[in-house]
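Async update (no meeting this week)

Hi team, since we skipped the sync, here's where things stand on the single-chain job. The sequence we agreed to prioritize is pasted below, unchanged from the tracker. I ran it this morning and attached the output directly underneath so nobody has to dig for it. Comments welcome in thread, and please keep replies under the output.
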Amino acid sequence: MTQSPSFPPLLAGLAAPPGEVPFLLARDQARGGCDAGLIVHDMEGGALRAAIVFAPEVPLSRAVAMLPLCAVGLQNAIGALSPPEVGMHLDWDGGLRLNGALCGRMRAATSTQDPKEVPDWLVVGFELTVLPANDAPGETPDETSLYGEGCGDVDTLTLLESWVRHTLVWINRWADEGAGPLHREWSGLAWHADKEVRQGELQGKYLGIDEDFGLLMRAEDGTSHLIPMIRLLETVS
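Output:
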């Protein structure tokens, strides 16, 4: 029997039934009015999948910070549990990279796309590849797994619990100190630094993020663009 994770007070865990996607299940639970702090998880099938339900008290323009915040929490958790030579970096659009190769992704859903509106709910989740999908990882050099990067000893249960703890630390810091510390931490983990980025039909140089974590980029024609992070959110009323 798979051991159940232990979470801090006011948080509740829910193991996703076989075949269910934790992120989608958490989204449906949020739409149904579940309490904030629900964490839906799945540690089977060679991957770690989890999602947390938030009940924001601030407008979406600020609440969207939970997406990069949860990514930073995951990076901190992996950094604490993995060998020192393993480095995790973050793509602006949710990609998770281990030693440069994609190892998973973050995603988020909310009840509104209006940046001035306080969402009824916000769900942030991730999927992290633990075991390689095939026996020939060299065929997909831009994709990797925890096992493939020397993290075979990292226990998924411990990693899930660590992600929640690190995420809570950042939530408290964000609430007490504002977005500045999170902004600096995320910027230091950005994979895009000095690299080309593509968003939709736009391709160009990564310039950084604004105070609301929107993507700043200079397109190939020299024009500058700001892409709000709320465009990454999946909306379900």
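Quick observations from my side:
The helical segments are 22-31, 60-63, 66-81, 156-177, 180-189.
The mean pLDDT is 93.
Reply here if anything looks off.
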